Amino acid sequence: MLRSNFKGVLFVGAIVALALILAKNKAIQDSTHLAGTAFAILIGAVCSPLFFRYKHSLQAGVHFSAKKLLRLGIILYGFNVTLTELAGVGVWGILISAIVITSVFLLAVVVGPRVFGLDRETSMLVGAGSAICGAAAVLALESTLKSDSFKGIVAVGTVVIFGLLFMFIYPFAYANGLFPALDGGGMGVFMGATLHEVANVAGATEMAKDLSQGAFSQSAANIAIIIKMMRVIMLVPFLLIVAYFFAKNQKTTAEAGETSRKKIDIPWFAFAFLGVIVLNTYFASVADVRIVGDLTFGWITAMGRELCGIFIVFAMAGLGLQIDFKKFIQAGGKAFGLAFFLAIVLIFGGYFLISLFKGILW
User: Fold this and answer.
1) What InterPro entries does this protein map onto (predicted)?
2) What backbone torsions phi and psi does residue 294 show, to the nearest 5 degrees?
């Protein structure tokens, strides 16, 4: 196992190292605000012809990076959230998150096949990425559905591109008064409820603070992150619900005399993710307590976050390497059409929804 994965993982690791160097370079970061995940998938895509040339020796390690390390990354993502932070947004934050996730995902499932001619699984993957937490949601759902890797690659491409696009648009639009009904707090809720990735929310809030001349405060940035993390948390019940209905549909199909091609997996890693959140909540309360020598609970938390980021970047690089541009051009257009439609729904529907909560959450 180790020998078969070694070359591929080493190849992906080189891309990850370059992506992290670029992401941590101050000049590049100040001008692009791109996270290591974005750099990784872009570099991976550029290097994909090299991967396909030596696929026989690299495939095992690249697949390991894109699948196994991704699940570890999702589990460790729990070190970014505490139960206290989740409780801070209260029932209204949960309600907003639930409305956004349910409406956007169901729209994708209906509109994707009927309007854009996509298959159901690709529509579900694009919908999950747009509704919940970007690439992490796509990859988590892909693991649950056991869908073809290419469908996940196309879906990740759509949410990465539109997430980055609106990460730049939101702060500039707010600074120029294009969201007249929202003050700083309202804009924070809006960002957290409608942007694709956690990294998109973090980047957008930093730019908004710089561009708005104080109108968008740190407290507004905090509520944006918390609302976004509430959507991330909802990935767990979402996966369980989708897994249940998908498996039920497969069983019905088999009973009707058709061949059931796939057996759904219960996403156990989602429960591990919740467990890490509970663990992180406890660690936060004893962060300075020493375990052995200078080893503290706070150090464990920091290390968990660091490993989470690295594993996610590995997964993005692995996905980028698997992009077959010929297939991407053939199949990607419809997926991008659906993702664009969902992005428009998030902007205008989200703006209306957040306006209804004025005086409650902001």
Assistant:
1) UPF0324_pro (IPR018383)
2) -95, 5
User: Which distant-in-sequence residues (6+ apart) come within 8 Å of 147 by Cβ?
Assistant: 121, 122, 125
pLDDT value for 106: 96
Report the chain (362 residues): mean pLDDT per 10 consecutive residues: 78 94 87 77 89 90 85 82 75 91 96 94 94 84 78 83 86 91 92 88 82 85 84 86 73 53 58 86 91 91 91 84 71 85 95 90 76
DSSP label at residue 132: I
CA distances to 5, 49, 214, 219, 352 from 206, in Å = 39, 36, 12, 12, 24
Look at phi and psi of residue 117 and say left if phi exceeds 0, alpha if psi is from -120 to 50, else beta. Answer: left
Distance between CA atoms of residues 353 and 362, nearest Å: 13
Contact 146, 323 (CB under 8 A): no
**Contacts by 171-178, CB closer than 8 A, 24 or more apart:** 171/204, 171/207, 171/208, 171/210, 171/211, 171/212, 171/216, 172/207, 172/211, 174/208, 174/211, 174/212, 174/215, 174/216, 175/208, 175/211, 175/212, 175/213, 175/215
The closest of 138, 166, 132 to 151, measured between CA atoms, is: 138
The answer to whether 322 and 48 are in contact (CB under 8 A) is: yes
Determine contact, residues 304/277, Cβ cutoff 8 Å.
Answer: no
Tokens at residue 169, please? 């648009």
What span, in angstroms and rounded, lies between the C-alpha atoms of 299 and 180? 43
